[in-house]
Amino acid sequence: MNLNERHRDFFEKVYAIVRLIPEGRVTSYGAIAKALGTASSSRMVGWAMNAAHSKEDVPAHRVVNRNGLLTGKMHFSTPDEMERLLRLEGVEVKDDKVIQFKELFWDPYSEISV
């Protein structure tokens, strides 16, 4: 049994939250972990996001690190794909960092109840 199979339920909960991120907004791995009641599991959220790239209905490009950096960009089809998808939604990125991160940040903990 691989990691994805053992943690499928957790991953699906992560994906459910990611599907709720509004277009043109971003959130962080840690914010998703906190919303799930597992604040110390942001790395596991990252693993879930790495596994999400085969799922077209999971907007993985909207999940960045706590500083707004595109740390997951290497897991997309090309290193520029994450930025390209964000730009299509009107999100400005410079030097692999979301401009106006605080203003665009979507907090799932306060927006939804899991």
From TrEMBL:
- Top-level division of the source organism's lineage: Bacteria
Name of protein: MGMT family protein
**Which N-terminal residues, if any, form the signal peptide?**
none
- Any one Gene Ontology BP term: DNA repair
Q: Which positions fall inside the Methylated-DNA-[protein]-cysteine S-methyltransferase DNA binding domain? A: 9-91
Which InterPro entries would you find in this protein's record? ATL_DNA_repair (IPR052520), MethylDNA_cys_MeTrfase_DNA-bd (IPR014048), MethylDNA_cys_MeTrfase_DNAb (IPR036217), WH-like_DNA-bd_sf (IPR036388)
Read off the Gene3D superfamilies from this record. Winged helix-like DNA-binding domain superfamily/Winged helix DNA-binding domain
